[in-house]
Amino acid sequence: MLELREAVLAEWETRVRACLDKAKELSHPILIDTLPAFYDNIAQALTADYPRVDAGDGTTVAIEHGGERARITAYDHESLIREYQLFRWAIYDVLYREGVQLSRSELLTLEASIDNGIQAAVSGFVMAHTALRERFAAALTHDLRGPLGTVSAALELILMVNDPARIKTLAAKALDNVHRMDAMIHELLDTMAFHSGEQLALQLAQFDIREVILDIQVNSAGAGRPQVDFGDRAPIVGWWDRSALRRAIENLVSNAVKYGRAGCPITIQADEIHGRLQLSVHNEGNPIPPEEQESIFQMYRRSEKARHTRTNGWGIGLPYVRAVAESHAGSISVDSHAERGTTFTIDTPLDCRAYSGAPTVV
Fold first, then answer.
1. d(Cα 231, Cα 46) in Å, to the nearest integer?
2. Furthest-apart CA atoms within the chain: distance in Å
3. Among 33, 134, 249, 303, which one is least packed by beta carbons within 10 Å?
4. Histidine kinase domain location, by residue (predicted)?
5. What does each C-alpha distance from 333 to 153, 267, 281, 336 come to in angstroms?
6. Would you state the pLDDT for residue 308?
7. Where is 100: in which H helix or E strand?
8. 266-273 and 228-230: which strand pairing?
9. Each residue of 27-59: pLDDT tens digit?
10. Phi, psi (degrees; rounded to nearest 5) at 327
11. 341 pairs with which residues across the strands?
């Protein structure tokens, strides 16, 4: 069994990448995960007089595998179960090909190991997802309390003052924060709908993307905030959803503010290339590790650095940007390096009217 381990793992990886869409783009270290250790446990359980009943006896290796699938990949529970089933058949086929025969007792041990591994992995998967949702709920509550507190304070002051001008100012402040909360909730609902397989309901209109970027640039200015640079460029007119695209760019700018190097400007660039819009947001600072560059676009997931800092976030900002880009028949990519900085790029057709119903990857 141990001599055939690499052959089994190679066979399994080939089958998983062919059968599971969610596994195709995973790097080898992420895909293989804890399965080598799980395989070794199976070999130990099949060894006479070795004190291990099955591969899951006295170990959490399968639980950790399920937890990592929940935290790092876009797997659902069906994908997790399916990869263990493929693991079972990879073992059987390699053993058959190599002329290795198992006794009835060994077959039962192997079957029990796989079945118990599936149960433990699903348990770890559910526990990790529960923890992610609880963290998300806490972040959501924290972020909503700010504007809600402002609205409450403004309304209390309105009840106490008689100056019409003062009342109008307070009412405008309250309304602005209500709109802010409404935008946050809509972003959440849109992102959840997108990740359930639904298209975003786009309201396409013709406009110059520079108008949106310049408005974001003005609204981003303020004491203590990084400078947002946007050069003097030619008009880029296209058919997009103004509100959705604006929110997506704001999320990228907000992300650059949170994680960019203090004192360094944020750069927005927009270009028209071959009938497409390429819009990028760049910041200097610590790079996003290659193994995290895909997972940050998944629901409720944040980079390792973000999780271990005091920076608040829901883990839906970048997934929302992906939802907007893909619903416009485009894409969102990231380029991140210690010397180049980090650049997020939205790439969509100039005229999205003919593609608004294009399929998206969930």
1. 67
2. 92
3. 134
4. 139-352
5. 41, 16, 11, 10
6. 46
7. none
8. parallel
9. 888 888 888 889 999 999 999 888 888 888 888
10. -70, -20
11. 337
Query: Distance between CA 319 and CA 280 in Å, rounded?
Result: 16
98 token code pair: 């190599």
* Distance (Å, whole) CA 19 – CA 15: 6
Instruction: State the Cα–Cα distance between residues 216 and 235, nearest whole angstrom.
Output: 16
pLDDT at site 362? 42
Instruction: Report the C-alpha gap between 126 and 199 in whole angstroms.
Output: 27
Q: Which residue has the tokens 């058959």?
A: 96
What are the two backbone dihedrals, phi and then psi, of residue 103, each rounded to the nearest 5 degrees? -75, 170
Which two tokens mark 25? 């783009």
User: Which residue is it, tokens 């894409």?
Assistant: 331
Residues 209, 236 contacting (CB under 8 angstroms): yes
Side-chain half-sphere CA neighbours of 99 within 13 A: 0
The contacts of residue 360 (CB under 8 Å, 6+ apart) are 194, 199, 323, 326, 327
Cα separation, 263 vs 68, whole angstroms: 36
What mean pLDDT is reported for the chain?
A: 82
Task: Provide the token pair at 56.
Answer: 């899951």
Report pLDDT digits (tens) over 112-126.
999 999 999 998 888
